[in-house]
């Protein structure tokens, strides 16, 4: 395994998969595309931390089902936040349809956190209803992954939703978690907000 796929600390790669999709895409098409991309990148056996997409597709059944089958969260970002991410393969067609020139690459990089590296650029499914890209999350000097940390993006994001696909959702009402603002990561970097019990 190369240093690139072995992660920044020599441990397992910390992969985040960005996914773009048309309405009605089946989960099987998304999962086959992800598997092909991981195999082509030489990281088929590495764990996936999350799927990520544009907020307009956060409720797309094919994406939520793919995340559920992989056992990972589906993170979503507003089109404006994705549009602010520099990507190698922007598309005018995607920009006109989604409000951002990249969904898969930008979502993968944004969800993977600051210092993330694009491991595999945009790849389209054979049926053409989905795209995906792979990002390798960075690791802080203390060994913590930057991926999945709310507010971890290098540039401030107007907001990000996390769609959990857990069969055991968190409690609601009076037992609901409360936000703690201005929490600091172990390296002193501001993480924005997080939920605590």
Folded structure, characterized:
The structure is a single chain. With 197 residues, the chain is α/β, with parallel strands linked by helices. 23% of the residues lie in helices and 22% in strands. Helix 1 crosses helix 2 (61-70). The longest helix is centred in the N-terminal third of the chain and has 14 residues, at 27-40. The radius of gyration is 16 Å and the shape is globular.
Characteristic key phrases:
disordered C terminus; about 200 residues; globular; disordered N terminus; single chain; two-stranded antiparallel ribbon; alpha/beta
Q: Which spans have pLDDT < 50 for at least 5 consecutive residues?
A: 1-9, 148-180, 191-197
Question: Mean pLDDT, rounded to whole units?
Answer: 76
Strand order of the largest sheet: 4-5-1-2-3-6
* Sheet/helix structural class: alpha/beta
* Number of strand segments: 8
Which term fits the overall shape? globular
N-to-C series of helices and strands: EHEHEHHHEEEEE
Q: Taking Cα atoms only, what radius of gyration do you get, to the nearest Å?
A: 16 Å
Considering DSSP H and I runs of 4 or more, what fraction of the residues is helical?
Answer: 10-25%
**How far do the termini sit from each other?**
39 Å
Characterize the biggest β-sheet.
6 strands, mixed
Strand content: 15-25%
The multimeric state of the shown protein is single chain
Question: How many H/I helices?
Answer: 5
């Amino acid at each position: 395994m190369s240093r690139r796929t072995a992660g920044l600390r020599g441990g397992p790669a910390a992969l985040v998969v960005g996914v773009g999709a048309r309405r009605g895409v089946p989960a099987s098409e998304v999962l086959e595309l992800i598997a092909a991309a991981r195999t082509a990148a030489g990281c088929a056996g590495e764990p996936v931390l999350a799927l990520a997409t544009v907020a307009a597709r956060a409720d797309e059944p094919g994406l939520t089902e793919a995340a559920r089958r992989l056992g990972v969260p589906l993170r979503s970002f507003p089109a404006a936040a994705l549009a602010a991410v520099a990507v190698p393969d922007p598309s005018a067609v995607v920009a006109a349809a989604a409000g951002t020139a990249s969904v898969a690459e930008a979502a993968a990089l944004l969800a993977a956190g600051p210092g993330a590296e694009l491991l595999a650029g945009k790849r389209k499914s054979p049926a053409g209803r989905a795209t995906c890209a792979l990002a390798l999350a960075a690791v802080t000097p203390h060994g913590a992954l930057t991926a999945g940390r709310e507010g971890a993006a290098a540039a401030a994001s107007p907001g990000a939703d996390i769609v959990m696909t857990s069969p055991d959702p968190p409690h609601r009402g009076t037992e609901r978690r409360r936000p703690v603002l201005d929490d600091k990561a172990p390296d002193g970097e501001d993480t924005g907000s997080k939920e605590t019990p």
